[in-house]
Amino acid sequence: MKQLFVARDGRVRERWQKAFPDAQAVRQVGEVAALAAAAMQTVWLDKTGLDTIEVLPSLREAVGLGYRVVVMTATPSEAEAFRVLNTGAVGYCHLESAPEQLREIALVVEHGGLWMLPELVQRLMALSLRAVPTPAAGPPQLNDLTPRELMVAERVAHGASNREIAEALDITERTVKAHMSTIFEKLGVRDRVQLALAMNNIPTYATVN
Amino acid sequence: MKQLFVARDGRVRERWQKAFPDAQAVRQVGEVAALAAAAMQTVWLDKTGLDTIEVLPSLREAVGLGYRVVVMTATPSEAEAFRVLNTGAVGYCHLESAPEQLREIALVVEHGGLWMLPELVQRLMALSLRAVPTPAAGPPQLNDLTPRELMVAERVAHGASNREIAEALDITERTVKAHMSTIFEKLGVRDRVQLALAMNNIPTYATVN
DNA sequence: CCCCTTACTGACCTTAAGTACAATGCCGTC
DNA sequence: GACGGCATTGTACTTAAGGTCAGTAAGGGG
Asked: Domain limits at A186?
């Protein structure tokens, strides 16, 4: 499996050469196509000096050609990670990664895996969980709630107590309870815990059965 | 690198034995710890016959022990995939995967990669992009929880009441409360609502303590 | 003007939740 | 064998949560 680096800065290539002695390096993605490489390769895309938006075209191009692309950056960010991976990259790592690390990553992506900074993995999943449409329960019918009820529900969704909600909305705790009761009925949940979960698109105990 | 399979069904082991001749198989995760394996291993968790919620405790336990866990299921689902990966699994694949495929996956996860069904990768990224770019929200320190506490917390995370948890775990409601108290303290939450949210990586109202 | 919805509140009650202060038995370590 | 962590349970207590059964008030149709 051949490695192919795309970078404008010559310095970073040293580490790469160390990790993959037989690797090739080019300055622009356009050159990749020119090589007309026969075998499937792994392309390492150096983002240094470029905005996220600016690498995307190159990334798309390489992905479109069937390469497995790993994006490297000196300043990793969550948003950028998701962006490039969503665009088709299979890896997102730090530019300063050690040669051994680079070989690890190469091994992973060449066998169908996905590689990204460990801390980003956890974060990514957490975000997805909230965005994933719950099949069984479906999104709560928030449209049925009155404006006031919605204000209450949203605070419950963040763990607020009745007292806190009452103070925040400048109403009595009794009134909060009244809203709660109607909310429970409208959304078909039995208590504030299930409401909080439902508001965050998380399937509930009874639903999982 | 040694492979370790957790399954209750004997039939599926044949394929595994074929992929990894020197693999070991056990029936419950609890046995994993009993083995006191010296080297870091890869644990393959068979979900067959279990609900998503039922594997999570085992999963967390194995992850907490430092194993790389791959969850296998006969009926893959998007929601479940995100859930198990979010819980700490590094792989989510089909139970019927061919031996060659299994070896690929093993290679990937053993080198720090993430493996999931290709179609889920795309979906995952698309969902993440839609999710709100909320700032930092590190995962709760679930490692501090004992196995038993984890089982309780896991069910609270799905909206179960103390009584339901007690029945499910076949213990007294009083015991559940005891676990709850220590869980609250360990995770720094004040009630079950905040616990449920924390377990799902959702920032809470007044967590800005 | 009546009806309905929404918002708000009171007094009262029941129950779930959570805490305080214990005790017992099981393991594994030192 | 002493010690500590874990799991379990008991009694008793305090409080938050939620429901019952009311009532008042504003606002918009019909």
From this structure: 142-208
- Is residue B96 located within the same domain as residue B15? yes
The secondary structure of B100-144 as a DSSP string is: HHHHHHHHHHHTT-BEE-HHHHHHHHHHHHHS------PPP-GGG
Q: What is the pLDDT of residues B76-133, one digit of tens each?
A: 887 788 778 877 888 898 888 887 888 888 888 888 888 888 777 766 766 665 454 4
Are the beta carbons of B193 and A193 closer than 8 angstroms? yes
Last residue of a domain, one of B76, B102, B129: B129
Residues with CB under 7 A from strand D: A 161-163, 174, 177-178, 180-181, 184, 190-193; B 146-149, 169, 171-172, 174-175, 178-179, 191
Q: What is the pTM of this model?
A: 0.62
Distance in Å, residue A178 CA to nucleotide D20 C1': 12
The token duo for B16 is: 């595994």
Report how many domains make up chain A.
Answer: 2
- Is residue A148 one of the residues assigned to a domain? yes
